[in-house]
Design goal:
alpha/beta; 3-methyladenine DNA Glycosylase II, Chain A, domain 3; 17 strands; about 40% helix
Length: about 450
C-alpha cells in the first residue's frame, strides 16, 4: 500500500535543510507521495529509511528500456491518465512482425521494408521503431537465423516473440548486445525466461489471460530478479483490450498497485488489405498501449498509425512551431511571390506543400504567432497588421521581394487595407484555403 505524505515525513531526518529543493521536510514528503520527487534527492536520509521509502518514491508505471545505443526506446513511466493533465513523455513503440517461416530472402526484404517506413510530417521524422521476430516455426535454429538477418538489416529495437525458452536462448546468442524484449514469459515457462532475461539484462513480456493472472505472474517474475517488465493481457476484441489497458493504468496510477505498474503490449494482426487493424491499433495507442505489434507493413497503413502516435505524444500546451523568418521554396528570385503565414507547424507545412506543388519558386514569411493557426492567431490578436508589419521589417523582406507585393491569407482579408497603409506595400489577398495556392500562383505568378 502506498505511503502517505505523513508516513514519509516520519522517516525523513526533519532537518529542513532545503537541499532537496523543497522548503521543508514535510513539503518534500508531500512531493514524494505525489510522485513529484525522488527520495534520492534528500542527501541526509538514512539507508534504512531509503529502503522503506523506495517503493513510495518509485514511478507508478515502471520505465522499461528496450534496445541499446541508437536502437534504444523507452516506454512507461507515465504519471497521468489524460494528456491534458500532463504531457505523455514516452511514445508507444510500433513494431512490425517478421515470421521465421519466411525464406532468408523474404526475411531480408521485409526487414528492408521496415527500415524504410519513415515519413515526414509537420517537419518531423516519424518512423517504425521496432521489429518483432515471430518464432512461428517453433525451431530454435530457424528463429536464431531470422533474428540474425533482421538484426543486421534493421536499425530498430527488437522483440523476440516465442514461448520456447530454447528459441529465446538461441536468438539471444546472435543479438543479446541489442538488448531485445523477450516475449514472453507465461505461467509455465516464466522461470526459464526470467533466468534468461536476468542473465542477459533484457526486459521481458509477461503474458497471461486477464489482469488477475498477470498480477500473479508479474510478482513471480519480479521475485526472480527481473525488474523491467511489459504486460500482455491476451484480451480478445477491442472492447476487452481497451478495458484491460485502462484498468491496468488506473490501478497503477490511482491505487499505486505495483504488480500492474508496467507498460502494456498489444497485438493487432489483420488480413493485409484491411484498414480496420490500423484503426484498432490507433485506439490502443490512445489508451494506453506501450507497444503495438502489427503485421501491417504498407506505407498507407503505417503512416496514419505513426501520425496518431505523434499527435498523442506531443505537448498539447506547446503547439509544434517552425522558425519565424523568410523560408525559400525552390530558388526564388527577386520577382518571386512573397506569401505570409503563421508559425504553427501544421499550417506552415500545409502551405509549404501546396507552394511546392505549384512549381512556382516562392518566399514564405513566417510570422511568430506562438504556434497558432491563421484564424486562431488573428482572433487572439497575434496575427494582425502590427505583427505582420513588424515581421516584414524585422526579416527585411524587401531584400527578397523587390516588387513590394505581399500575399496574405484570404481568411484575414480584413487586414489588407490597414497593412497596405502601414507597410507601404501592395497587399494581395490570397486564397482562403491552402489547397487554392497552386492554381492561384500558376495563374498570377507562373509566367
Amino acid at each position: 500500500m502506498a505511503l502517505t505524505g505523513l508516513d514519509i515525513y516520519k522517516l525523513l531526518p526533519k532537518t529542513n535543510c532545503g537541499e532537496c529543493k523543497s522548503p521543508t521536510c514535510l513539503a518534500f514528503a508531500m512531493r514524494v507521495a505525489q510522485k513529484q520527487a525522488s527520495i534520492d534527492q534528500c542527501p541526509h536520509v538514512s539507508a534504512e529509511s531509503k529502503e522503506k521509502l523506495g517503493a513510495a518514491s518509485a514511478p507508478p508505471i515502471q520505465l522499461v528500456t528496450i534496445g541499446a545505443g541508437d536502437f534504444k526506446i523507452a516506454i512507461g513511466n507515465e504519471t497521468v491518465l489524460f494528456r491534458h493533465e500532463e504531457t505523455f513523455h514516452h511514445p508507444a513503440g510500433i513494431a512490425v512482425t517478421v515470421s521465421d517461416k519466411l525464406s532468408e530472402a523474404e526475411i531480408g526484404a521485409r526487414a528492408d521494408k521496415i527500415v524504410h517506413l519513415i515519413f515526414e510530417r509537420v517537419g518531423m521524422k516519424i518512423a517504425v521503431d521496432m521489429a518483432c521476430i515471430m518464432n512461428d516455426s517453433g525451431d530454435p535454429a530457424k528463429f536464431a537465423a531470422a533474428v540474425k538477418i533482421v538484426a543486421q538489416k534493421a536499425p530498430v529495437a527488437l522483440i523476440l516473440a516465442s514461448d520456447n525458452p530454447d528459441s529465446l536462448k538461441a536468438a539471444l546468442e546472435v543479438c543479446a548486445d541489442r538488448r531485445p524484449l523477450l516475449c514472453g514469459a507465461n505461467a509455465s515457462n516464466y522461470q526459464a525466461v526470467a533466468a534468461l532475461a536476468k542473465e542477459k539484462n533484457c526486459p521481458v513480456v509477461a503474458r497471461a489471460k486477464g489482469l488477475e493472472a498477470l498480477t500473479d505472474l508479474t510478482q513471480k517474475i519480479t521475485a526472480a530478479g527481473v525488474k523491467e517488465i511489459v504486460l500482455e493481457s491476451g484480451a480478445e476484441g477491442v472492447r476487452q483490450t481497451l478495458e484491460d489497458l485502462t484498468k491496468a493504468r488506473r490501478y497503477a496510477l490511482r491505487k499505486s498497485f505495483r504488480p500492474l505498474g508496467y507498460p502494456m503490449l498489444t497485438c493487432m494482426m489483420g488480413d493485409g488489405d484491411s484498414f480496420l487493424p490500423v484503426l484498432k491499433a490507433a485506439a490502443y495507442i490512445a489508451k494506453y498501449a506501450g507497444i503495438v505489434v502489427t503485421d501491417a507493413i504498407e506505407p498507407w497503413q503505417l503512416m496514419p498509425l505513426l501520425t496518431v502516435r505523434q499527435n498523442i505524444y506531443t505537448d498539447p500546451r506547446k503547439p509544434l512551431q517552425v522558425e519565424p523568418g523568410v523560408h525559400k521554396i525552390g530558388e526564388p528570385g527577386s520577382k518571386a511571390p512573397l506569401l505570409i503565414t503563421t508559425n504553427f507547424s501544421l499550417t506552415y507545412y500545409t502551405v509549404e506543400g501546396e507552394v511546392e506543388g505549384s512549381k512556382v519558386a516562392s518566399n514564405i514569411l513566417v510570422v511568430d504567432t506562438e504556434g497558432t493557426s491563421v484564424l486562431t492567431a488573428w482572433a487572439a490578436e497575434k496575427f494582425t497588421t502590427d505583427q505582420i508589419a513588424a515581421a516584414m521589417n524585422k526579416y527585411e523582406v524587401e531584400a527578397v521581394a523587390s516588387h513590394k507585393k505581399v500575399i496574405i491569407p484570404g481568411l484575414i482579408a480584413v487586414e489588407s487595407g490597414k497593412l497596405q497603409e502601414e507597410s507601404g506595400w501592395e497587399v494581395i489577398v490570397g486564397p482562403k484555403e491552402a489547397s487554392g495556392i497552386p492554381s492561384y500562383l500558376k495563374a498570377n505568378w507562373g509566367g
